[in-house]
Amino acid sequence: MPDAAHVMSWPPFRGWTARISFFLAFPLSLRSISMTFLRRRNAIVAMAALGAATLAGSALAQQTVTLRLHQFLPPTAPIPALAIVPWAKKVEAESGGRIKVQLFHSMSMGGSPPQLFDQVRDGVVDISWTVLGYTPGRFNKAEVFELPFMSGKAEPASRAFHEFVEKHAADEFKDVKLLAAHTHGPGLFHTKEPLTKLEDLKGKKVRGGSRVISSMLLKLGATPVGMPVPAVTEAMTKGVIQGTTIPWEVVPSLKIAEIVKNHTTFSGPQGLFTQTFALTMNRNSYDKLPADLKKVIDANSGVETAALFGRAMDEGDRMGLASATKLGNKVVTLDAAETKRWQATAAAVEADWVKEVQAKNIDGAKLVSEARALLAKHSK
């Protein structure tokens, strides 16, 4: 009996053999074509995805960001004119124009100076500059730089203060990104009546810019009246206060030299008091920046930025003193002996402060020592 192969070779079956072979081979051919198509499709999809990622990366790299900066002084004051505006321009230039800093002066976005830190923390604004002492109880460790006769020139003191904050008080800024912490120059009195000795201050209503400064005024015999600096001009004009504690820097912008004719300062490099300031950024506003723009912000943060603000304060002091002198005002520098009387009386403020912060588990005596060591380091 012939086998199957032999049968299929007979003439009647030859056509069917070819047809069967074709149909058996067809699925394999189709599978090959399908696999080729799939490979090509996957390659196209991959190329498209790569292109989309490249475009997205390029778009991110070209992203332009507008940061709103809010502060309480008029634009002509030394800090806005000599520090904030130059800082903003430097950031814009170093970002290749991809960061725009929109400036809002004189509380033009609303609120009051004591609310500025919360505005940046809560994202109402992206960046703010404010006085730390406007929110008592929040910056307990940083307060050490406000103690009487602690510091003098603003640039070295600002370097010292920023370093102090980074080492000892960074937790007080954990809710924001700290760009710079700085101080003003030597604090002094501006009064309607002259102050030539400690007794002249007794009973006078004098503006204090922070909790510590008001405590100092009380120890010195004055009646402290707390208020943010923008309120001083009206308070002086209306007789609500008879004097104010501010550095020379802010005298021209508040027109203090036109309102009062007496200014009292002290012998030695340290001023009667110091206030502290911070330039801070909303944490989320910083975190969502592309990496290269974060580097721009980082490069314009830290001790050197604090020094920029300190130099602006020192230049402002020079201009403020010149404005009072030009008007013929009386500028009294108490001699060394009288200065020591004020220092001895004000020393109780430091002792009280150490006790107060001790109750908050803060080693105040150690912080005072650290602050003075950093001031000495940066004043060389």
Kindly describe this structure:
The chain has 380 residues and is an alpha/beta fold. Helix content is 51%, strand content 15%. The chain contains 14 helices and 11 strands. The strands form 2 sheets. It has a 6-stranded mixed β-sheet with strand order 7-6-8-5-9-11. A 5-stranded mixed β-sheet has the order 2-1-3-10-4. Strand 6, helix 6 and strand 7 (223-226) form a beta-alpha-beta unit. Helix 3 runs antiparallel to helix 12 and helix 6 (211-220) crosses helix 13. The radius of gyration is 35 Å and the shape is globular. The model is unreliable at 1-14, 16-31 and 52-60 (pLDDT under 50).
Query: SSE order, as H and E?
Result: HHEHEHEHEEEHEHEHHEEHHHEHH
- Strand-residue proportion: 15-25%
Please tell me how large the radius of gyration is: 35 Å
> Largest sheet, if any?
6 strands, mixed
Q: Multimeric state of these chains?
A: single chain
Unreliable parts: 1-14, 16-31, 52-60
Termini gap: 118 Å
Count of strand segments: 11
Strand order of the largest sheet: 7-6-8-5-9-11
Q: Count of helices? A: 14
Mean pLDDT: 89
Which structural class is indicated by helix and strand composition?
A: alpha/beta
Note the overall shape: globular
Question: What portion of residues is helical?
Answer: 40-55%
